[in-house]
Amino acid sequence: MTALLAWTLLHLVLAATGTWLARRYAVKKQLLDQPGERRSHVVATPRGGGIAIVVTVLLGIAWLALNNSAEAFLLGCVAAGLVLVAGIGWLDDHRPIPAWPRLLVHALAAFLLAWGVHRSSPGLLAPVVAFVLALVLVNIWNFMDGIDGLAASQAAIVALAMGLLLTGGVWGWIAAGLLAALAGFLPFNFPRARIFLGDVGSGALGFLLAGLLVAAFRSERASWPLLLLPISAFLVDAGFTLGMRILRRERWWTPHVQHTYQKWAGRSLSHVGVTLAYAGFSLVAAALVLIGRGWTEYGSASICLVWFLGAIFLRARLRRDIPNE
């Protein structure tokens, strides 16, 4: 317990210090997100603060790899994939990069995670799940990083749930480190953002969460349908918004303010209110994962179906109640 406490405190301090330094760097280099019709903020805000989370968690992963030979290859693949995702995001924060090269790098990072999982566990299902989750969540967390505190707080809730689920193993330590790093970053990003995650941070969070979810899937400590619950708010909002933009033949990869959370923040609640509402929803979902650890796969699938139908209904109701849609 003492070692875990020291681990989390070190991650928190490193991330908080790194975020402060990242903000100074961003201001000096004029890495600022300007307000506009495709943005949800109203003042120029530095970006790229997620680099502090990335560096902090990478240091933790390196230490774990050096002290856990059985997991060293997988952890090396995770670290390499994280560097790729964060690296292309860091470059994009400095100078915009076209969508397809970024997607190619994300796919390569997802492959590295899948390869590491394949080498460390039998069967093909877990590697396929790893590849799909990594590719999807990297981009979803990027899409959903649009108002103060939302992407970071949602990642913290997922990390909390996975940390409690995976207690005692290497991935439990990674989850605890990520949660602490996010706690070090969040005071700079919520309730009023003094720096944004940037692409370097949002994509990296999606990749790390994919790794945690795959670890939980491999551990079989909870039925797999339940593992989708903590990310359900983002899956539903991003999935429907992306689908509608594709159907309308819009440039779906470009910035916009069509997500439900953006519409809600702009016309009904403040950024704080929307972020807290999403957090409350996801905390209940995370609690269901922990409560349902002993449920059968059939029961878990039934709860998951009801939950997602409820989430879809809530989204539809919110969209209907927002004026001038």
Please give a structural write-up:
- With 325 residues, the protein is mainly α.
- It has one domain.
- It has helices at residues 2-29, 50-67, 72-94, 99-120, 125-143, 150-165, 170-185, 198-219, 232-247, 260-267, 271-291, 297-321; strands at 32-33, 45-46.
- A two-stranded antiparallel sheet has the order 1-2.
Q: Kindly report how far apart the N and C termini lie.
A: 51 Å
What is the total tally of β strands? 2
Largest sheet: 2 strands, antiparallel
Tell me the number of helical segments per DSSP (H or I, 4 or more residues long): 12
Report the sheet-strand fraction: under 5%
- Uncertain runs are none
What's the topology here?
Blueprint: H1 2-29, E1 32-33, E2 45-46, H2 50-67, H3 72-94, H4 99-120, H5 125-143, H6 150-165, H7 170-185, H8 198-219, H9 232-247, H10 260-267, H11 271-291, H12 297-321
Antiparallel strand pairs: 1-2
Helix pairs in contact: 1-2, 1-7, 2-3, 2-7, 2-8, 3-4, 3-8, 4-5, 5-8, 6-7, 6-8, 6-11, 9-12, 10-11
Descriptive keywords:
mainly alpha; two-stranded antiparallel sheet; globular
What's the gist of this structure?
With 325 residues, the protein is mainly α. It has one domain (2-321). 72% of the residues lie in helices and 1% in strands.
